[in-house]
Amino acid sequence: MAKLGKNKGPKYNQIIDAAAEVIAEHGFHQAQVSKIAKRAKVADGTIYLYFKNKEDILISLFREKMSLYVAKVEEAINAQQGVEDKLFALVDMHFRNLSENQHWAIVTQLELRQSDKQLRAKISEILKSFLKLLDNIIEEGKKEGIFAPDLDTRLARQMIFGTLDETVTTWVMKDQKYDLVALARPIHQLLLHGLKKN
User: Fold this and answer.
1) DSSP class of residue 177?
2) What percent of the chain has pLDDT over 90?
3) pLDDT, average across residues 48-72
4) Mean pLDDT to the nearest integer, 94-112
5) Rounded Cα–Cα distance for residues 115 and 184 (Å)
6) What is the pTM of this model?
7) Cβ neighbours for 26, distance < 8 A, ≥ 6 positions apart
8) Distance (Å) of CA 45 to CA 36, 51, 52, 81
9) Are 28 and 115 a contacting pair, CB within 8 Å?
10) Residue ranges of domains in the chain, CATH in brackets
């Protein structure tokens, strides 16, 4: 697996990982830089060598984790032959990734939502690479005649992403008490029935 911020050094990675834990445990507004520094085992001042402020830490955290995640999802999709299997690979990877990284799940599903408008705009920009993967699957399905040819790609993408997002948010709110990955197959089937050509 690729390392976070591979050109930025181990301290950068320590801070990013520590930030995910501290923000998940205390919430973004209560996650002081000093708490992140303590968890990362670095001096408070060291954080400012890499980041401008706490908001910059959050954006950098999201950018780093998403770039790694998108690369993994793309690899999983490319290993599949058909559109249906590609869609399942994306759903399965999404649930698996967040299930295995519970701090990250809390940050993405709860804490990023509470950020201000400017931060949310930056987060939306970073998210585009993941949404592009969805668009590609939908377009491929339409070309192959598996999905309805008149399917609105943007609407279909919103439906898929919204379903995945809400499923993970509910799992986080329920304190991760059930198997998120086990939901991949039934949700995949549910999505397919909505997308397939009659």
Assistant:
1) -
2) 78
3) 92
4) 91
5) 29
6) 0.87
7) 35
8) 11, 10, 11, 50
9) yes
10) 62-195 (1.10.357.10)
